[in-house]
From TrEMBL:
<dbReference type="Pfam" id="PF02082">
    <property type="entry name" value="Rrf2"/>
</dbReference>
<dbReference type="GO" id="GO:0005829">
    <property type="term" value="C:cytosol"/>
</dbReference>
<dbReference type="InterPro" id="IPR036390">
    <property type="entry name" value="WH_DNA-bd_sf"/>
</dbReference>
<dbReference type="InterPro" id="IPR036388">
    <property type="entry name" value="WH-like_DNA-bd_sf"/>
</dbReference>
<dbReference type="GO" id="GO:0003700">
    <property type="term" value="F:DNA-binding transcription factor activity"/>
</dbReference>
<dbReference type="InterPro" id="IPR000944">
    <property type="entry name" value="Tscrpt_reg_Rrf2"/>
</dbReference>
<protein>
    <submittedName>
        <fullName>Transcriptional regulator, IscR/Rrf2 family</fullName>
    </submittedName>
</protein>
Length: 132
């Protein structure tokens, strides 16, 4: 699942907002990035809910970053866009939560779990500024 269109559009939108000197509204972002306005509006609501952006009403309103782009991690953005932690594989996060009770004999779970840890670590160290 790791990165879907939601994550991609959230990243592109936040980069555009971070590089702007004034708030960016959904209409402008939608046109500039060629993204469905209704889909983008839902993504922006999630980003606001997770406190990555602030919505300002009015004629000159729009979205601005709630904190500096150096402190917003890609992991935070993906989690906000997807409304859950990103996963590399569709498997239980721990041996104890394995739905088929075969985790102790699963030969690939340790590898996949290690990969998930490395992806989370990488995304938590990479910031919005790093990719902009």
């Amino acid at each position: 699942m790791l990165l879907t269109k939601k994550s991609e559009y959230a990243l592109l939108s936040l980069i555009a907002i971070a590089k702007s000197d004034e708030p960016k509204n959904v209409d402008v972002l939608s046109k500039d990035l060629n993204i469905s306005k209704s889909f983008l509006a839902k993504i922006m609501q999630n980003l606001a809910k997770y406190e990555l952006v602030v919505s300002q009403r009015g004629v000159n309103g729009g979205f601005t970053l709630k904190k500096s782009w150096e402190s917003i991690t890609i992991l935070e953005i993906v989690e906000a866009a997807e409304e859950k932690m990103p996963t590399v594989f569709e498997c239980a996060p721990s041996l104890q939560s394995c739905p088929n009770q075969k985790a102790m004999s699963c030969t690939i779970w340790p590898l996949l779990n290690n990969l998930q840890f490395k992806v989370n670590d990488f995304l938590s160290k990479l910031t919005l500024k790093d990719i902009a």
